[in-house]
Specification:
This protein has 345 residues and is of the alpha/beta class. It has helices at 38-46, 93-96, 125-129, 142-146, 148-161, 176-187, 200-203, 222-229, 245-253, 278-283, 296-308, 313-316, 326-334, and strands spanning 2-8, 11-16, 27-35, 55-56, 60-68, 80-83, 86-87, 107-108, 120-123, 133-135, 168-172, 192-197, 213-216, 235-240, 255-263, 287-290, 317-322, 340-344. The protein folds into two domains: 2-136 and 312-344, Quinone Oxidoreductase, Chain A, domain 1, CATH 3.90.180; 154-290, Rossmann fold (3-Layer(aba) Sandwich). The chain has 13 helices and 18 strands. The strands form four sheets. Strands 3, 5, 6, 9, 10, 17 and 18 form a seven-stranded mixed sheet that branches. A six-stranded parallel sheet has the order 13-12-11-14-15-16, with helices on both faces.
């Protein structure tokens, strides 16, 4: 079969590899759609110490079951599935606390295990045992279902924040997850969503999503503008969906008294620091949260949101490529000319 194989920094080759062999307790699926994640692009450009070459990338996918391993029940040939691809052990203290996304023995697909930029992928027994394999609703395309993985991460973050009907939400960063945050905030009843982005091109996609106001930070000071728009109060919820220390600093500055802030995007590992005015956190009683990955329940909720039409995955998908053009897709993605890029093997 053909697969996109990561060989190290700047080295990904689409080539013939051995088709994975079915194992007892596992599933073999034929991949129909796999979205490129920002972490895939970062691994290509900067590397990732967790990825040991050669490795097949890809963790936002949907596929169809073609073989069922011995002992596996509850699935059928031809069934479309997706997967919460951070597989926990289910036994460590962190898992027992219900934080399986931060499991001490996590097995992430496409980072440690071979992923879905391939014609076929093996779903390991542990993924089935831990409930990570999810059925795709009939009214969802496989392309849309692939979006359920990043959407699950967004849902996790907003559950931590407790976004609700009375909130004015500011999302900093108009990339794919920024737009998903806008959609989910509105689905949770937020009264107003303001999107902040440096690039005008990225803001051009806002008309397709549930965004009330946009601010181009290249043209105007977002802190001053948001304070004007909120009569000097600031935002009830701030979601920093851009890997920028400056954005994190601004996120604290625009927060209203008692607000909740999510540093959703991580900073570059070689400089993961931001200088914050902690007096604002102190005197405004701000809650600053992180969120990492998601759990199977979040991705199940993501599939339900997508199937209900409350989140517009179709508008998020701007490009599609065959597997043979994987490297071309990465080059277009680098230019930030679209939002979500789907590979259809």
């Amino acid at each position: 079969m053909k697969a996109a194989v990561y060989e190290g920094v700047g080295k990904i080759e689409v080539r013939e590899v051995e088709k994975p062999a079915l194992v007892p307790g596992g599933l073999l699926i034929k991949i129909e759609s796999c979205a490129i994640c920002g972490t895939d692009l970062k691994a290509y450009v900067y590397g990732n110490p967790r990825m040991k070459p050669p490795l097949i990338l890809g963790h936002e996918f949907a596929g169809r079951i073609v073989e069922i391993g011995e002992g596996v029940e509850g699935f059928k040939i031809g069934q479309r599935i997706t997967m919460a691809t951070s597989i926990p052990c289910g036994r460590c203290e962190i898992c027992l606390r219900g934080l399986q996304n931060m499991c001490e023995n996590l097995l992430p697909v496409g980072t440690v295990l071979n992923g879905a930029f391939a014609e076929y992928m093996l779903v390991p027994p542990q993924g089935i045992i831990q409930g990570n394999v999810l059925s795709v609703p009939e009214n969802l395309s496989s392309d849309e279902a692939a979006i359920s993985e990043p959407l699950g991460c967004v849902i996790n973050a907003q559950e931590i924040l407790g976004v609700s009907f009375s909130d004015t939400v500011v999302v900093i960063g108009a990339g794919p997850t920024g737009y998903l945050h806008a959609e989910v905030a509105k689905a949770r009843g937020a009264k107003r969503v303001i999107l902040v982005q440096r690039s005008e091109a990225r803001l051009g996609f806002a008309k397709n999503f549930k965004v009330d106001d946009i601010i181009c930070s290249q043209k105007e000071n977002p802190v001053k503008k948001i304070m004007e728009m909120t009569d000097g109060k600031g935002a009830d919820v701030v979601i920093v969906a851009a890997p920028s220390a400056e954005a994190q600093v601004q996120g604290v500055q625009i927060a209203a008294k008692g607000a909740r802030i999510s540093f959703f995007s991580s900073l570059p590992k070689d400089n993961p620091f931001a200088t914050l005015n902690t007096n604002l956190i102190h005197y405004r009683e701000l809650k600053v949260c992180g969120s990492s990955d998601s759990r199977a329940i979040h991705q199940k909720l993501a599939l339900e949101l997508l199937a209900s039409g409350k989140v517009n995955a179709r508008a998020l998908i701007t490009h599609r490529f065959p597997l043979s053009e994987f490297l071309q897709a990465l080059e277009v993605m680098k230019k930030k000319e679209g939002l979500k890029f789907i590979i259809n093997p």
